[in-house]
Amino acid sequence: MALEHLTIAGFGIMSVIDTLSQEKEFPKEIRIEDVKPFENKKNALEDFLTFSKNYEEFINKHPKNISLAKKAHPWFYGLNNFEWSVFMFIHTFIHRRQIKAIVSQLNKEGIN
To answer: Which residues, including other chains, have CB under 8 Å from residue 102's CB and lie 6 or more apart?
Structure first.
C-alpha cells in the first residue's frame, strides 16, 4: 500500500511541478484523501518502478528554474516547483523507511 501511495502521490507531484514550472496556476485542490492507496495492487512494485523511471527522466530533463507560481500542500504553505521537488524527495525517503521496517518485520516473522 505504501508503494501504491508513493506512485499516486508521485505522479500528482510531477503534474504540480510541471504546471508551476510553466508559471501556471495548478487549479485542482490537493487533498490527502486523493493520494491514499485503494487497491493494494499485486503489481504495486512494478507500477512504482515505472513511476520512478518516469520521475527520474522528468526531473533530469526539467529546466532548473524556480517558479514564482506556488501551490499549497494540505499541511504546508504554498510551495514553488523547486520546493515541491524537495518535498517529493523527503516524502519518498520517509515512506522508504516505513517500507524497510515492514519488510524487516515480515522477514523476522518468516513471511516472504
So the answer is: 2
